[in-house]
Amino acid sequence: MENIWTQFSSLLWMMITGIVWGAYADAIHIRRSLRRIPAWKRAMGDLLFWFGSLILLGVGLILGNWMEIRFYVFCAFAFGYMVYAALIRSVVCPLFRKGFQVVGLLGYPFRRFHERIVFRRRLWWRRMKRRVAKEKGE
């Protein structure tokens, strides 16, 4: 049996992991709500989200409990998420939303530059196809 301080520290680490997981889930949700995403990209995003969640939970288990799985560990994880949802979410979500909007605005000139390059490449490709078709027709 481990001493009480070791159990308390693992409980605290799992609560922190639950809080961080709640922030991670909200960040993904807010990022997804700002843009329209095709279904296949949404599915890939879901897979990456759950993969990231597993990594986060694994790191929390390693730091807090040395990969020993006990009932109170998951109770602490759930309690940490509930603390996040009740107390911290109302502060963090607007910050995430503003942060993603600022990053989106900063990326706008680069996105426009990329769109111009892609448009010109497509236009060049169409001209080449027409030229080749015209040469074959003559």
Low-confidence stretches: none
Strand content: under 5%
Helicity level: over 70%
How can the largest sheet be summarized?
A: none
Gross geometry: elongated
Mean pLDDT: 86
Radius of gyration equals 24 Å
Structure description:
By secondary structure, the chain is mostly helical. Helix content is 91%, strand content 0%. α1 runs antiparallel to α2 and α1 runs parallel beside α3. The longest helix is centred in the C-terminal third of the chain and has 67 residues. The protein starts with a helix and ends with a helix. The model has no long low-confidence stretch (mean pLDDT 86).
Offer a few descriptive terms.
elongated, mainly alpha, 138 residues
Topology:
Blueprint: H1 4-34, H2 39-65, H3 71-137
Helix pairs in contact: 1-2, 1-3
In short:
The chain is an all-alpha fold and 138 residues long. The chain is 91% helix and 0% strand.
